[in-house]
Specification:
Elements: H1 4-21, E1 26-37, E2 53-57, E3 60-72, E4 77-84, H2 89-96, E5 102-106, H3 113-119, E6 125-129, H4 141-148, H5 151-162, H6 174-192
């Protein structure tokens, strides 16, 4: 299983490059938690202790990694990035989308004037971040329609976790965990094709 991880990584790289050649104008970026063990077992977890850390998501605290994905409106995978759970989402967003152009949509977790200024490139890339419900910011009807498509990436994460085995505590090595993550993403991509 671990030996096939390199092949999976190469296939994912090729699929993402091909996806960028035929990409839709609208892209969505989001992150999800990947727990490596139960929170109560974090102190005794040894396998991923160097790569994992405590992070906080909408579901609460977890011990593990964070997976960030950029996909287009047609479902093509354009970029993936694994990071530590506590890494700043805005910095991850800059890194994962530096070579992606078009209309980028993100949720309220990425709200930052500086990020919007840094990522917007005239006539090449536009960043739209959904405002918090408490923010007094006007939204046009077409922006609201763009934000509605963001639910698709949430379904992708749900499918990866429930049906493709992204979240596991079975591997006994770092290579085993990474192989499992890559194989889960690859099986998800092939299922969609």
């Amino acid at each position: 299983m671990n030996a096939s991880a390199i092949l999976c990584l190469r296939l994912l790289f090729i699929i993402m490059r091909l996806g960028r050649n035929n990409q839709h104008l609208v892209k969505y970026t989001d992150a999800t938690d990947i727990p490596v063990c139960l929170k109560k077992n974090a102190d005794s977890h040894k396998t991923m202790k160097d790569l994992s850390e405590f992070g906080h998501s909408i579901k609460g605290w977890f011990f593990g990694l964070k997976l960030t994905i950029t996909r287009d409106a047609d479902g093509r995978l354009l970029a993936i990035l694994f990071t530590k759970a506590g890494d700043n989402d805005r910095e991850i967003f800059r890194k994962i989308n530096k070579d992606i152009f078009g209309i980028l949509i993100a949720d309220a977790g990425y709200v930052s004037k500086q990020l919007e200024q840094d990522m917007n490139i005239e006539n090449k890339r536009w960043l739209f971040i959904r405002p918090y419900k408490t923010m007094k910011k006007l939204m046009t009807k077409w922006q609201e329609e763009l934000y509605k498509g963001r639910f698709q990436i949430e379904f992708d994460f749900r499918s990866l976790k429930l049906f493709h085995g992204l979240v596991t505590s079975m591997p006994r090595s770092i290579n085993g965990y990474l192989a499992n993550y890559l194989q889960a993403i690859l099986s998800f991509v092939f299922r969609r094709a």
